[in-house]
Design goal:
Elements: H1 9-12, H2 16-38, H3 59-69, H4 73-84, H5 87-104, H6 113-139, H7 141-147, H8 165-170, H9 174-184, H10 187-198, H11 203-210, H12 214-241
Helix pairs in contact: 2-5, 4-5, 4-6, 4-10, 5-6, 6-7, 6-11, 9-12, 10-12, 11-12
């Protein structure tokens, strides 16, 4: 049996390449946003969606934002990657989250910058997920109804005839198996496990990010670890059987 807590974090994290791509995309978007923020007030008039909540940041606050938020880019990408299970979508979610965080930074009251940012990532994921479901509903209503029918969504629905999660995972390296097992977990369990084991948040911080009581966080973590361990043992048993 393997515990995700005992696994090297590098194995379960996405590789550095996507994070580098995300950093570049976010940095480009933020440079554009900084330029807009620094523009003269009389040139800032525009549509309602161009308006930013809170007041514009000062140059010092913008520098503080970069210093306090950019170090958490990997954590933001990790959460977005496991929630969306799509590398390209995760980049979009992270970029949106950083733009939202910048716009709201004047109202940031301190505390855990990582937890504050990840809560925004989570909200951006929900926006992305709702948009995706609306698009799917427009194209294939029956498929969306099936997806919404239960918590055990996702990867299990993508299996072809004759395949099981175990047979798919057997073909992967150990690092890929960890990722694959995480992606098989229902979203609420996957979320808390990633926040705790990969992004290293405290129970209280996870509670703040997920918007649920600490007791619920602990219960979900316990269930997530049991599910993870059970799936890992099933995959390990399959690997032993084919040797």
């Amino acid at each position: 049996m393997i515990s995700i807590a005992a696994s090297p974090q590098a194995c379960a994290r996405p590789c550095c390449g996507p994070s580098a791509d995300v950093f570049g995309a976010v940095a480009h978007a933020l440079r554009a946003l900084f330029a807009v923020a620094a523009a003269p007030a009389e040139g800032a008039a525009g549509s309602a969606e161009d308006a930013r909540p809170g007041r514009p940041l000062t140059a010092l606050e913008a520098a503080h934002f970069r210093a306090s938020m950019l170090p958490h880019l990997d954590a933001a990408y990790t959460l977005a990657r496991y929630l969306t299970r799509d590398a390209d979508a995760a980049q979009d979610v992270v970029q949106d989250a950083y733009l939202r965080a910048y716009r709201a930074f004047a109202d940031f009251k301190g505390g855990s910058a990582r937890a504050w940012l990840l809560a925004i990532v989570r909200n951006c994921h929900r926006t992305w997920r709702d948009h995706r479901r609306r698009e799917m509903l427009r194209r294939a209503p029956v498929a969306v109804a099936a997806e919404d029918g239960g918590e055990a969504e996702d990867a299990l629905d993508l299996l072809v005839d004759g395949e099981t999660p175990e047979t798919i995972l057997l073909r992967r390296s150990q690092a890929d198996r960890v990722r694959g097992i995480l992606e098989l977990l229902p979203e609420p369990l996957r979320e808390v496990l990633v926040l705790r084991e990969l992004d290293e948040l405290s129970y209280r911080e996870i509670s703040d990010v997920a918007g649920v009581p600490v007791g619920t966080v602990m219960s979900r973590l316990s269930r997530a670890r049991r599910h993870f361990a059970d799936l890992w043992e099933r995959v390990a048993a399959g690997a032993e059987a084919v040797r």
